[in-house]
Amino acid sequence: MDAADTQARLNIAPLAANTSLRALAYDAIKKAITEMDLYGQDNEIRLDERQLSQDLGVSRTPIREALTVLEQEGFVRSVPRRGIFVVRKSKREIIDMIIVWAALESMAARLAATRANDRDLAELREMFHDFDAEAPADHVTEYSDANIRFHQTIIRLSGCEMIGEMTENLFIHIRGIRAVSMRQENRAERSLQEHRAIIAALVARDADLAERLVREHTLGLAAHVEKHGKFLA
């Protein structure tokens, strides 16, 4: 990218002593990357081994080993003489990932319609209780967080571990794109309306409708990225 690099200071806590420090470092760094604003800034995001070592309270060896695994999985990339950078996907890659997510989450919704209990569905509805009286656009950050929890919860309520595993690595990028899109074209308000319709279908135990609404909702994000994804390479 043309803009100057950004050296990222991840929001992570020191690790406890453990025989598998590489695994702990991997989990901590991956979690921090997941929570980063990957697509809300122009600059590339560079990671600093020394800073990570200080933040996690371990030597640089497990940090280096964890970053190697993360690079193999496609979350970071090593650039000779420049450092380690968090990977951001291209516009085409993001759209393809959203399409895959739509297929997986729509099936999750179909399963959730018959497998989720009434209490689970009540908790799903409660996520948006705070926005009954106030517009989502007035509290975009809070709504964006609730939006992410909503989609994660549908995946969980499917009761299908494989769907959860398959969406885990997509989530890092989908989360970042959803967060950016919430600030564009009044998508927060439309998103809330669509979420409520999805919840109503789940409560009615209408698997066909829940599946269709979730698929259309997510493919709507793909169409939005196609139209407004100028921030993507």
Give descriptors for this structure.
single chain, 233 residues, mainly alpha, Arc Repressor Mutant, subunit A, Four Helix Bundle (Hemerythrin (Met), subunit A), 2 domains, four-stranded mixed sheet, 9 helices, 63% helix, globular, DNA binding, WH-like_DNA-bd_sf, Tscrpt_reg_HTH_GntR, WH_DNA-bd_sf, DNA-binding transcription factor activity
Secondary structure blueprint with pairings:
Elements: E1 6-7, H1 21-34, E2 45-47, H2 49-56, H3 60-72, E3 76-79, E4 83-86, H4 91-115, H5 118-126, H6 140-157, H7 161-181, H8 187-203, H9 207-228
Parallel strand pairs: 1-2
Antiparallel strand pairs: 2-4, 3-4
Shape: globular
Described by strand count, sense and barrel closure, the largest sheet is: 4 strands, mixed
- String of helices and strands: EHEHHEEHHHHHH
Strand runs, count = 4
CATH class of the largest domain: Mainly Alpha
Mean pLDDT: 86
* Strands ordered across the widest β-sheet: 1-2-4-3
Fraction of residues in H or I helices: 55-70%
What's the CATH superfamily of the largest domain, by name?
A: GntR ligand-binding domain-like
Describe what this molecule looks like in 3D:
By secondary structure, this protein is mainly alpha-helical. The protein folds into two domains: 6-86, Winged helix-like DNA-binding domain superfamily/Winged helix DNA-binding domain (Arc Repressor Mutant, subunit A, Orthogonal Bundle), CATH 1.10.10.10; 91-231, Four Helix Bundle (Hemerythrin (Met), subunit A), CATH 1.20.120.530. Helices cover 63% and strands 6% of the residues. The chain contains nine helices and four strands. The chain has helices at residues 21-34, 49-56, 60-72, 91-115, 118-126, 140-157, 161-181, 187-203, 207-228; strands at residues 6-7, 45-47, 76-79, 83-86. The chain has a four-stranded mixed beta sheet. Strand 3 and strand 4 (83-86) form a beta hairpin. Helix 1 crosses helix 3, helix 4 (91-115) runs antiparallel to helix 9 (207-228) and helix 5 runs antiparallel to helix 8 (187-203). The longest helix is centred in the middle third of the chain and has 25 residues, at 91-115. The termini are close together.
